[in-house]
């Protein structure tokens, strides 16, 4: 079998580099282009020393349309607005596109423009774009030309809560997601706020009541309430944690009835027991980000507080893998009819 | 003026050591005993190298009653149950006692025994013990013989929410406190769970729906609802963060009416504008643990989410200072009629 | 081809767990026993949550001789003295043994007993034990029954300096190795010194002039000076760094003549250019531990200081992989005539 | 007594901020200007939240000469070349200047220009500038108008080795300094190399054989060899450690004779026993950066390796305090005839 030819636009950001790492272990794919505007002309392995003698190719500042003639699939790990600005019908006819930015995640352009504060340049492709949350939308992913790869917080929040919402076990106006993320989620841009000394020995909330993943969670989780979405409104608060990788979402909601652990557990098993990448932990074990580090796993468990009638669901992922590059590869595998875990059979690394 | 003679029982735990650090800069107090069972006979500065040439005294395993004859005040930074097991009338007649454990924090013995799972050995002193949350109970602290110094999570949670509860601005059954703590809160015991490699590069929730600071927050915050307490029930979830110091409490509650920022701000100012150690941040600035590190400050701010009708209050303290030793010294200052910030005029250290 | 049956004694220490991680991705090996005295009866994945749904086997406290009847190879990741205390001819006839402890690394029993301060219980096996530094002793490893897997500091120090010593390019009495290690090297024992708050935000030297890897480095590097070893004496100083993984060795030595970069480079290439796991970095790039994290690579480079006539060689490994479990698997691959990198084709993970 | 009026140029870098922290606790000094080009017009406490309600002054982009009319002393915590570019006789007649940059540290302009690769704009002031290493040059500091405040690595390296060199106990061509620094030493500039994810979980050497503190150490330590300096040449290798603060220098040298611990100890005591900020640790205790954190202390100890005839001296400082702002304040105290430890009686903070 010929290898899938992969192009990466934005390969020198953290998500792009993680794609390179994962694809270096993928049997049926090869990277033919390490796209990078900032490092055009530099060897990829000079930018990321871990890739030395593994990916010594020279980075190139590529035109997406040109690249689409050679590639079978292109991952765009680019700033918001880039893909929407250059996408066209030719590209989508030439190859598959998996977009790690937010450009095609929200179905309502107005919502996109309100939360991202930029104009959407190619709304005509929004409708066909498939929201690539594999465990929920697997069937739609199969035939898609354009995948909107979910955000990291979004993946973690939605998968944590999905069975509860789908099965009507919680009040959909009572959801609070308090999320904690490692710093790689902030990207590799040179900003004072992300310097070692600013992040280390600190924890802070940010984007309180205004974070852009909020409408994405609401929209997608809303489809679990009703076909056309909602009603479902949440509070979402991300926090920055002094660690490289990992997202932990601590989710609170009012149970719609006095369900016990086993009943709720069954709802989770109904939806996830066949999923290779979702691990429902044993009762009494809480998800921790360290146990999924480097892997595509998502760990989930929950506690019911009878005193308050609330359920506390905890979900943990590696933001770089299941929250970005890993899920993107998972989508690629589904689209190309490969085993869903090809290139992703990675045992989490500890410590 | 003679210096206050201070004894510390449990001086070689983290909270005890922090007391030693703070008291080394206190003009009107001197430590006459570094109590320690584990390091009996060892120089204090061999246990904590930072204290070399500052506190080279030899640690001693002291009898509380004996020590009470020499000391003006004794801090007990000891495991749960210790003080309740040895306290008696003689001791309290000899000197003041400021207890950093939980032994005298809860007024209801049954609640104590249920959450702490140990028998309370001297319930007769519970009633007179004053809950030493200085900003709320300053007047009672003044004349007290026995202070129950508040827990770290408790201090942070209560002070974050107090004005809202006191002024009736939130629904008291809607409160969720999602707290994040540095690792010094776990103490200096040699446990696998607290090893560097277990804590580093990880975040986890623990004690979900069962953490012992829950009833303490509920009781104290309940007094702001009504004189006899409550009704007020909360969800409280602590998380362990890979950093040494600091607690951030992210608190969620339903506003009881559509208050705007300025109205709520006024409630906070009413209660805290005269407080030296509480800093209400400028609008738009969120509390971060790094800005209070090493100091007795508590930073507070909030955001109102009109979409959900909830307020998100954030409070940050240094768990070792305002959450333990600093507040204990603040209590001592009040009890001995000293300026409340003596020994505590410490500018937070960054980075 | 039948899978190699692997037993791990001491599987619940960090090195044992790393063996489990690496072997979970090995095509021709399967772990048949997760040996552990401390966690006898507990599922391996309850001890290490990363292994959940990957290695859920129950840990057992195994007798080495019993296990040798079922296993093709046994890894002992055990405290010093354990293997020497139980090894016998029957075991070595039944299966291969790869020892990650120091029991069979030093050829001179007296040196072992002096530096380790314990009696050696089975000196009769010292002679046949092969020092499993694959790149140097590959041929001897092939036919061995018993492998003494090198120490982490030792691997890094020897491979950094070997070409220089072998080619006579440095004065062998001028060598200083200043090494820096992540904290996983200290193991999973519950010790105050290794608590998060003790290690974080700190750097210290330890075992100054007395660390046990010193004679190991001297002996092995000595064989590069002369057949019978030496003369070669070094200063070796390890430091503890607040990070999980990685060793960086900064080595200083007087050049025996005024060699330039290219000449020295050729010596390194002569010995290492065919080595899959040794990466000689491009001129101007210094090894950093992050670039080898999670992998079996060793990165090497050097700088010549003409002002002082010294060469500064830097070598970086992941102490858990090339410094322990990875090299052990590499030895297994050599012994069982498998591709040397089977199970070890791991791209380093960053960040 | 009137307070000393202090101006800080470059107050919003890490060293400038540390000056602000230390001066906030100084009885006889007040900051009258928080100079900052980048944050002109912004409240200092908006740049550094720790200073909220402590230093809320607005930052201003100041002309040094204008400021010199109002200030008694000006600290310049500015990039290399700034002070040399603007200094003049008028300024030095108006007020004292304590320069935290390297502009006036090296007596030989050619050496400065070679290592710093910039032209020196006011070499006429080099001769009068006093190298402000208080413990060595106290007398000269007293009457100085212009202080060249030493570099962080330099302070730590020189003070670690000074007694040995001064007393002729080591071979001056055998010195190797392997230094490890926290990341605050890299400053607050927004550089990819200093992002959290780049520094965390990593250790690397940098500036190998080319670091600018090398000639500074050689020159100053050279004066301990002979009046006109040297001969003394060293190898100096700095490393970046994933922690905020602290420098550990591990220094190696050949003893000039077979001195024992006590003999060498006496040499250290001869020079340092009266020094408030130098702590010679008890035999067997190694300096660790955590024990000096936040303070102006320098901890020193050493080990003699009889096998190799070398001494290993370890010195630890907080790079922000004794390595920068603390020593600058110490110099100010000496110049203004204040107790040398005014504003610096800070107990190190742990953990």
β content of chain A, as a range? 15-25%
Mean pLDDT of chain A comes to 97
User: What is the helical fraction of chain A, as a range of percent?
Assistant: 25-40%
Contiguous uncertain segments of 5+ residues of chain A: none
Summed up, the helix count of chain A is: 12
Oligomeric grouping of the chains: homotetramer
Strands ordered across the widest β-sheet of chain A: 8-9-7-10-13-12-11
- Report the count of strand segments of chain A: 13
For the largest beta-sheet of chain A, the strand count, sense and barrel status come to: 7 strands, mixed
Order of helices and strands of chain A: EHEHHEHHEHEHEHEHEHEEHEEEH
Largest interface: A-B, 45 and 45 residues
Radius of gyration of chain A: 20 Å
Tell me about this structure.
- Four copies of one chain form a homotetramer.
- The first copy, chain A, is α/β, with parallel strands linked by helices.
- Helix content of chain A is 31%, strand content 19%.
- Chain A is built from twelve helices and 13 strands.
- In chain A, the strands form two sheets. A seven-stranded mixed β-sheet of chain A has the order 8-9-7-10-13-12-11.
- In chain A, strand 1, helix 1 and strand 2 form a beta-alpha-beta unit.
- In chain A, helix 1 crosses helix 12, helix 7 runs parallel beside helix 12 and helix 8 runs parallel beside helix 10.
- The two termini of chain A are 37 Å apart.
- The interface between B and D is large, with 36 and 36 residues.
